[in-house]
Amino acid sequence: MRICVYGPGQGGEQQPRVFYLGARRLPVVAIRGSWLDAGHRFYEVSVDDGRRFVLRHEPVTGQWELAAVYRAGRPAARARSL
Fold first, then answer.
1. Torsion sign (Cα): 62, 66, 27, 47
2. Has residue 80 been placed in a domain?
3. Closest-CA residue to 79 (of 42, 25, 47)
4. Rounded-to-integer distance, Cα 19 and Cα 2, Å
């Protein structure tokens, strides 16, 4: 699922600070981790209600996608890649 992500770039890398699911604005309260896989940058982030999300960034196109969603403490659902 494609999403809108905003964040300041640091050292040429754009880290997510807020993202939108539909019309819902979700500020990132913590970046729990990040990694590279198959040319994509992944970020595991937390939002203020305790949910965790995995966001996938395609650096060549600048596109962001939702890769996974977790409730606080356990997996809730997985989004398919587009």
1. negative
2. yes
3. 42
4. 11
For residue 51, tell me if it sits in a domain.
yes
User: Does the residue 43 lie in any domain?
Assistant: yes
Structurally, the chain folds into a number of domains equal to 1
Residue 72: CB atoms within 10 A of its CB come to 10
For the segment 48-73, what is each residue's pLDDT rounded down to a tens digit? Answer: 999 999 999 998 898 999 999 998 76
Higher pLDDT, 62 or 45: 45
- Output the CA angle 61-34-1, nearest 5 degrees: 50
Domain that holds residue 56: 27-82
pLDDT per residue as tens digits for the range 8-41: 655 556 789 999 988 899 999 999 999 999 889 9
Per-residue confidence (pLDDT) for residue 30, from 0 to 100: 95
Widest distance between CA atoms in the chain: 33
